[in-house]
């Protein structure tokens, strides 16, 4: 009997430590109750539910997770020493997360790294097979134009033992896909 009781206590303690995890979450919605919904993908090499352990991705699963009241939200950058993402800059807080989700859901247009507003006018044309761009009537290098469509916000989240998100890192390419890739990667289609 003591053996079973000791085994049960040991199992319970191990489960408590396994619940805290880090995973990629492609956020598609944010709720009024402080929760986010999106597709959860395990991080390669971290194991966890859906992970393949040493480097494989599991299938993405739709999840809704609660955000802590004091959730830390940061932009992220890749650190060569740790070979992982690290927080960069000040805490953006919940308002920064909401703004990033809204931007990803609405799409994003930038010229030379500057996000366009409702007051800006961008013209994209193709003449003689060469793309051209004008911003507010002035010519700009086409390679500086980046157009991204609607999409989920790509993040890396860390949860506590209760499964509540405590840290959100906004990853590069944080939303949208398709369109012109920017910096010379884009190709415009023409109807001739």
Question: Can you put this structure into words, describing what you see?
Answer:
- It is a single chain.
- The protein has 192 residues and is an alpha+beta fold.
- It has one domain (21-170).
- The protein is built from two helices and twelve strands; from the N terminus they run αββββαββββββββ.
- The strands form three sheets. It has a five-stranded mixed β-barrel. It has a three-stranded antiparallel sheet with strand order 6-5-10. It has a three-stranded antiparallel sheet with strand order 7-8-9, with no helix packed on it.
- The termini are far apart.
- Residues 47-56 and 174-192 have low confidence and may be disordered.
Question: Taking all residues together, what is the mean pLDDT?
Answer: 79
- Could you state the order of secondary-structure elements as H and E? HEEEEHEEEEEEEE
Q: Report the principal-axis shape.
A: elongated
Strand order of the largest sheet: 1-2-3-12-11
Could you list some keywords that capture this structure?
single chain; 192 residues; alpha+beta; 5-stranded mixed beta barrel; 3-stranded antiparallel sheet; 41% strand; disordered C terminus
Chart the SSEs and their pairings.
Elements: H1 2-18, E1 22-30, E2 35-42, E3 61-79, E4 84-88, H2 93-106, E5 108-111, E6 114-115, E7 122-127, E8 130-135, E9 138-140, E10 145-148, E11 153-159, E12 165-170
Concise account of the structure shown:
This protein has 192 residues and is α+β, with helices and mostly antiparallel strands. 16% of the residues lie in helices and 41% in strands.
């Amino acid at each position: 009997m003591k053996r079973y009781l000791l085994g049960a206590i040991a199992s319970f303690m191990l489960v408590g430590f396994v619940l805290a995890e880090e995973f990629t979450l492609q956020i598609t919605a944010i709720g009024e109750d402080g929760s986010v919904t999106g597709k959860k993908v395990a991080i390669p090499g971290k194991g966890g539910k859906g992970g393949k352990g040493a480097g494989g991705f599991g299938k993405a699963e739709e999840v809704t997770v609660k955000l802590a009241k004091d959730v830390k939200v940061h932009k992220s950058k890749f650190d060569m020493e740790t070979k992982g993402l690290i927080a960069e800059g000040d805490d953006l807080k919940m308002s920064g997360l909401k703004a990033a989700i809204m931007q990803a859901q609405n799409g994003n247009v930038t010229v030379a790294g500057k996000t366009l507003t409702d007051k800006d006018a961008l013209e994209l044309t193709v003449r003689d097979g060469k793309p051209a761009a004008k911003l507010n009537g002035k010519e700009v290098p086409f390679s500086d134009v980046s157009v991204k469509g609607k999409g989920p916000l790509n993040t890396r989240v860390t949860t506590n033992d209760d499964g509540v998100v405590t840290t959100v890192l906004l990853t590069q390419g944080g939303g949208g896909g398709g369109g012109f890739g920017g910096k010379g990667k884009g190709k415009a289609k023409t109807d001739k």
